[in-house]
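Fold Annotation — chain and its backbone
Encoding — discrete vocabulary of local shapes
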Amino acid sequence: SEVVETTDLNIYNDHFIRVKDKSGHTWFFDINQSDYSIKPNSKLAIVGHGDNKAIAKNIKNINMNLQTRTFISGDEIDNLLIGTNLYGIGNSVQKAEMLYGVNSLFIISLAVVESGWGESYLATTRNNLFGICAYDGNEGAATSFATKEDCVLRLGKLISEEYFSKGRTDLYSINAIYASNSDWANMVGSMMNYFASNL
């Protein structure tokens, strides 16, 4: 997920909007399959994986209570992750939601943002999908987990005990402690919207 800004209000070929990402690459998104409102300097997010990308407005659910359970199944979660290195964590995510009350879509969206769809160094060498204890890029301090499930359940416990119990139940308030990147809440929220629209 990546937050971008656009000042281009033109509609190309009757139904595409053009957005440039941070590397200068130009993307064209079908406005009939995207969730956004066009306005000058509006923040938009490129979300998705591989060739399956879409654009989303930032952010519908940015202040939603992340203690809201989705009750989606492990299989439904895995269907959202097919073709990625996160595929297979569905049951663990569903278990974390039920045990700790942490929204499943938040968990998988956080995994996407923190691990690059499970492809980061920490994800592939330490089963660490969320950058747990990797403070400001200090990968040496990051926690190693025996399995991805161990990591998912630790994340659920961490969010419940260190954030929810202190009244931090939305993306903005968690962002203030969890990540130094001020766009973190927008990126995670964009992914949540993307996954919700694909359920």
The CA atoms of residues 175 and 192 lie 15 Å apart.
